[in-house]
Design a protein that fits this description.
Helix content: over 70%
Number of strands: 0
Mean pLDDT: 88
Structural class: mainly alpha
Oligomer: single chain
Low-confidence stretches: none
Number of helices: 9
Radius of gyration: 19 Å
Largest sheet: none
Distance between the termini: 19 Å
Order of helices and strands: HHHHHHHHH
Length: about 270
């Protein structure tokens, strides 16, 4: 019974993550206006990338090493200290599941209907690069001690946001692809929580009180800005005008909001698990 109660919040988290993923796909891939908004942000990134393109190019080139090698080294060092091999196995399984499902969803299950607004980029949802970065951050977050998880959540979310935003600047992905990639990892992170809730008793340490409210507030402000930008982009599309910078800024704001809010919620969900 206690295991079931501990697993319940993770089950709800998985359902919300999956539902949000479906909503993002239906709105920004399956609908005409959603494709228009996404493409405006995509075009805005190309028009306003400026000197950021150099950082994005360098960061994405280093991403595989930074995610897999450095993430693995940090995680293994923590595991050797804490001796929580069970958590490590579950975390690695979740990371593998997130990355495999991302590729299966993108190339096998999901499709992008032709609605006359594409710039030649085929279905790219969810973002594989974002999933790689976010899943590496998830592994480190899960194996970290409860007292260090807030720090891991902050650093990991910034890393995932930087990776996702860089793919937009590099014209590899649309904003919805990045948000969807984060939601896939969030889903698998919740599945890992369900497994650990059943297999792992609460730790001896008291529950961590940190709720990462600064991330929540930053995420909320970015979410509000993203909604405003989305509405401006929508009405400008209806009137035949373009606001590419607003669309681009709104896309980046949506990425930041998603990354920070998921990090704060994940930290809250895991506060009682060792």
């Amino acid at each position: 019974m206690r295991s079931s109660l501990r697993a319940l919040p993770f089950l709800w988290g998985a359902l919300v993550s999956a539902g949000s993923f479906v909503a993002v796909y239906l709105v920004f891939v399956q609908s005409y206006i959603g494709q228009v908004i996404d493409e405006r942000a995509f075009a805005g990134a190309d028009a306003w990338k400026g000197d950021v393109i150099e950082f994005a190019h360098t960061f994405l080139n280093a991403l595989p090493v930074a995610s897999v090698v450095i993430g693995a080294i940090v995680a293994i060092v923590i595991v050797l200290i804490r001796r929580n091999w069970l958590v490590f196995a579950v975390a690695v399984g979740a990371a593998i599941g997130a990355n495999v499902s991302t590729q299966v969803l993108k190339y096998t299950i999901l499709s992008r209907p032709e609605k006359g607004v594409d710039v030649g980029l085929s279905n790219s949802l969810p973002s594989g690069h974002t999933a790689v970065a976010a899943s590496a951050a998830l592994v480190v977050f899960l194996v970290a001690s409860p007292r260090l998880r807030p720090v891991a959540a902050v650093v990991g979310s910034i890393f995932a946001i930087a990776a996702g935003a860089s793919t937009l600047v590099e014209q590899w992905h649309r904003p919805s692809d990045v948000v969807a990639g984060m939601l896939v990892v969030a889903f698998w992170g919740c599945l890992a929580g369900i497994v650990l809730a059943w297999l792992h008793l609460p730790g001896a340490e008291p529950p961590v009180r940190s709720k990462l409210w600064p991330l929540v507030w930053i995420g909320a402000v970015c979410a509000a800005g993203s909604v405003i930008a989305l509405l401006v982009t929508y009405f400008s599309a209806q009137s035949g005008t373009e606001h590419l910078f607003i669309a681009y800024a709104g896309g980046v704001a949506a990425i930041v909001a998603t990354g920070f809010v998921l990090a704060a919620l994940g930290n809250r969900l895991y506060r009682r698990l060792a």
